[in-house]
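Re: Re: token formats

Sure, here are both.
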Amino acid sequence: MSEFGKKISIVVPVYNSSNTLKRCVQSILNQTYSNIEIILVDDGSKDNSIEICRELQNKDSRIIVVSGPNEGVSIARNKGIEIASGEYIAFVDSDDYIKSDMYEKLIEIAERRKVSLVFCNYEEIKKNGDSRPIDQLSQVSKRNDYANNIDIIEHMLQISDTNIFGVCWRTLIDVNLLKQNSIRFTPGITMAEDLKFILECLGATLKSGICNEYLYCFDVTGLSTTSKFMKTQDQDMDTINMWIRDFVRKLSTSRDFKVYSSICMANTVVINAANVCKKFSPYNMLERVSYVKKKRKQADYRVALSVSLRNRNLIMKKRWIQMLLIVFHLEVLVILFHSLKYKNFKKYG
């Protein structure tokens, strides 16, 4: 069904996705809303992903294939944005898949409510095929199908058990919103790049559509890569934190968003403490503890941790406890916890 007639461009970044790519693309081709184009952007895959892309392209004229060197997911998505010919754009990760009526339902809300963004809920798909529904939207608004963007931003910046994750893959976006505000993914950032992107979109408009149905299927079996040390994570999170602090200052709202930017910054200390304990970490146990101590002593992070401790209700319990331990100079317990979690007590290399 293509009741509204407007085309949706669906960008799929592809990197070594040979095992899941066909499932992903087939779920998009099976959409009840047929006025779509699928832009497969191969980001220098080392497996046979590009051959699969070409094979799929030969079977359906709605598929466009772009290939190039490995430059990261942000640049891959930006390439898709640049060549998209639809009035709306969406993103699907190549190891995930979507329900057959996802875009029919999202575009119906977008057109009826005259909004530039529409979000849906999603399901986590486990290795054994079981699914777990993740409801992050019903809390945002008492209205059935739209919400104030300030409310969405407020929930997105919390670190609670039910906060809205800043991901781009369960969102339908009006292309004009991106063009008129020069919104793109930031190259070179490997952590929270889509959080920044979605926040920019939300900050450029007043309201968004909400679909409480679970239409996106997020496959968590591929998350094993998150157990490995990420070299640029510290720098990336510093960049995102500084950007969020400036972003909330510019918001036209009477609410005190400084608390939320502080929570994001304090949460970074915990996330990076976990990162230095992961496989391939170049830090030994003493260096891991010293790393967290150094973060705690930095003025911005010291203030952020203090603010966070006073706002327990906005932070998930396990994160808040770790922040508490760090503030009271017990970061060694945080390091022991993460080292046990990742079963890694040795320095790599």
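Second one below.
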Amino acid sequence: MSDNLYRKYMQRTMCLSCGRPLRPGAVSCPKCGSETGVIPQAAPQFAAVQPQPVTVGSCPVCGAPRFAGTGFCEQCGTPFGKLNGEPAVHQIPEPEVKPAVKPVCRRCGEILEDGQIYCTGCGAYQGEEPQQKSEAVPFAHEPEPVFEKELPRAYITRVSTGERMLLDRSVTRIGKDKTNSDICIPDNSTVSRRHAEIINRDGMYYIRDMGSTNKTYVNGHELSPLEQTHIIDGDKIVLANEEFSFQIMQPVHI
């Protein structure tokens, strides 16, 4: 090595942080940006001719030249990556190693080893418990008794004789004609052959005059021919001059 090259090499310094050779006068490492100071570099046993650095621009802060492969300015330490959108050259920190968390017993809190399925403290099983399927059992209800609906029974009572006659048809015909009457009044000549009808409609009762000669009366009210009138328990019915009492008997359950 010539004396001139050796003197130039001895004038170079190196970074205390990363060991990169620095140019004379540099106060910041172009590789790591450290400003901790510099130390003289020991002379090697042999030295090769170093290639000249390639300039790729200048520092946008202080204007010092920027060389290829550098991430920080040699004069002011400005990181080029943050200014130009390029990744800055820096040391990658080592990942933090967290201590492994040991499993504990779900019953007593005893620390368990990996894969241990029974607790050494209380003996509780630590594996997955099988899920039990709950089947809904229908509550057994006794069937309610079904009663046949009973409708009230209706009667008409002939006042002159005390005879009580059941109205058990949907339409009950009253007159003196035995052939065409359900309730026959043969011994009264004032009653027409087909004098009146009593109609049962879902437990509601109605009387209708069938165009009789001597008329039909309900509580003293004269009915027109074919006129239909609602009757209730205790009403007084008169066919010509034959008087009847209308009664409704409610069913009795024992």
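Residues 82-90 have pLDDT under 50 and may be disordered. The helical segments are 3-10, 80-84.
- S.
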